[in-house]
Amino acid sequence: MSELLEAGGWGLLAGSALLIGAVLGYVLRIPHQVVASVMAFGAGVLLSAVSFELFDEAYGRSGMPPVVVGAVGGAAAYTVGNMVLARRGARHRKRSGHVQDQPSERQQAGSGVALALGALLDGVPESAVIGLGLAEGGAVSTVTVAAVFISNVPEGLSSSSGMRKAGRSRGYVFGLWGAIAVASMLSAVVGNAAAGALSPPVVAAVTAVAAGAILAMIADTMIPEAFEKAHLAIGLIVVAGFLVSFALSRA
């Protein structure tokens, strides 16, 4: 029970960064260049964590086949879910509104629900691996938690800025991201609880599923906001985020 509570606490901590970013993005009028920069940094951090924490861990546990099967399955599942939600108004859920507008509820009925489900789709894999890693290693991966926390701030920031521009209320925005933070906690608990019943190859495959879904999310929702009509230093910022996460993994 104590480990489940610990997993939930770490998941809630990582997910709370979404709410922090949402408050900043909704209350402040942040220039698009700044939003793009923090999004690029967060993308770099997650890319490094996926490479040197999740994929490396899965490969070390059971070799290449579970990694390939899991990663492709995770990316495919994310892509299918994202396609369904995109048709219902969640295609640009990470957009700040500076480049690509999110639809308002009046423009597309049900888009608010789709945005909420899209945020859940983005956040669950990240939190699940926190609980899974805690169960397997006996201690939470500081790098994974830090990477998810750092990347969640710009995600919440950019998305809430776009929601505000689309006319969604303060209560909706903060309630949504608060609920996603709680869902992150529950995902970490479920990942931790499930790990004990799984064999090493299955744990490796599940870890790879999460990694594949996260990679697909980065490519589909974070990178477009970071790079579209942004300044030429974005690539350098991605590398900076990657190196920060890499340094943490080797500390």
TrEMBL record:
Domain of life: Bacteria
Entry's transmembrane regions: 7-27, 34-55, 67-86, 171-191, 197-218, 230-248
UniProt entry keywords in alphabetical sequence: Membrane, Transmembrane, Transmembrane helix
Identification of the protein by name: ZIP family zinc transporter
Species this chain originates from: Streptomyces macrosporus
Classification lineage: Bacteria, Bacillati, Actinomycetota, Actinomycetes, Kitasatosporales
